[in-house]
Amino acid sequence: MLRPGQRPALEWFLTCLRGRAHVHVIDKTGYVAARVLELFTEEPSYGAGTSLGRDHCHAVLALRRHTGFLAAFVDLTRTRRVRLISHAAIDRFFAAMPADLPALREVTRTRVEEVMVRLIDEDRAFPPPLEPLVPALAETLLFWSGGERSVAVVHDEQSALTRGRVARLGTFLAEAVSPAPPPLRSFLQVDSRDDPRVQVADLLAGIARRRTPELKELLAPYLQARACCTRARQPPM
Known about the structure:
Elements: H1 7-17, E1 24-25, H2 28-40, H3 57-63, H4 67-78, H5 87-96, H6 109-120, H7 133-145, E2 151-156, H8 163-177, E3 184-190, H9 196-209, H10 216-219, E4 233-234
Helix pairs in contact: 2-3, 2-4, 4-5
């Protein structure tokens, strides 16, 4: 559908979906930069990385260029898989930390070690630190519920969206928007090979991900314009 000769089919596809589809895009570099602050300077929350969390945009813009530091953060948070704190990974994280960013002054070794212990112990208050699907699902629910209705979600099978995580996200959102209806009514995972709803969503997501200049006008009605640290990719319909 993205080939030049298929432009009429692409325009037809996007026209048919107008008002029925929405794409939430996440910029991965900005997402990781925001997670540093959300994990090490505030209490964990299923609102982190969403419009319900703190606005870290100015700090994120400053952090984006420090790719070595962000890589050290990713390496650090992945050490929980071995069930032990990696003091070497913590050393690399602090060695790479920029010294001139005020937002990082609250990040102490004690705090980092405490967070890592909680991650290793699988503290349920923590959403997975490097998994953008959770905040993407939250933003999708907030968009479609609009403070007026509860939404039934049909999603392709994803191991990151466990029953427990989805339930905790649903509880958090219900409390956050009360007295409006809870955003999440139900959540069903399906095989994307057999469900046309998911297949259509995947097509739209793929088109949005390839945002070339000639598609900018066609895609404008579908893309969520949000703060710099949380932009779209996951598009449950």
